[in-house]
Specification:
Layout: E1 2-5, E2 14-18, H1 44-53, E3 59-63, H2 69-82, E4 87-91, H3 99-104, E5 107-110, E6 128-131, E7 134-135
Parallel strand pairs: 2-3, 3-4, 4-5
Antiparallel strand pairs: 1-2, 5-6, 6-7
């Protein structure tokens, strides 16, 4: 599934694409069907068509990693080469990603969803969003919002 989203990556109009074969086990997962191998295969040609059909997007967001890191890296490399003005983002439910994955993406969100900590817009979240290795999570927080739980 794809959608154009405005709140997942700060100051970006993102084309968000669900990636199946999720390796995570988040309690209260909002998309449990993504644990299965579902949907159309994401190929460079499919990516090119999605970008062409969604004028105005400036970030391609992978919602998940799947089980094939080499394929993920190849798709990110294709976007970087074929669409150099497009930024690339990854939402991973893992605690951390490998350095080569971190380097391939402009934005990387890590951390499994934990209901007691809340999502990125909660100051008590365990999740983090990095832009070129700089933690920018606090850009999601509104002044005066109390955390569900204090970060450890």
């Amino acid at each position: 599934m794809t959608s154009v989203v405005l709140e997942e990556i700060p100051d970006r109009v993102s084309l968000a694409v669900d990636i199946s074969n999720c390796r995570g086990n988040c309690v209260g997962c909002h998309s449990p069907f993504l644990k299965l191998d579902v949907g159309e295969e994401l190929t460079p040609a499919v990516i090119d068509a999605l970008i062409a059909d969604n004028f105005g997007v400036n970030c391609f967001l992978f919602l998940g990693e799947g089980k094939d890191p080499e394929a993920l890296l190849a798709l990110a490399a294709h976007i970087r080469y074929a669409h150099p003005a497009m930024e690339i983002a990854l939402y991973s439910g893992r605690e951390e990603v490998e350095p080569e994955i971190q380097a391939a993406f402009d934005y990387v969100k890590v951390g499994p969803y934990r209901p007691e900590c809340g999502p990125l817009n909660n100051p008590g979240t365990n999740q983090r969003l990095y832009h070129h290795k700089e933690d920018i999570t606090s850009r999601f927080w509104r002044k005066g919002l109390e955390p569900l739980q204090k970060p450890k």
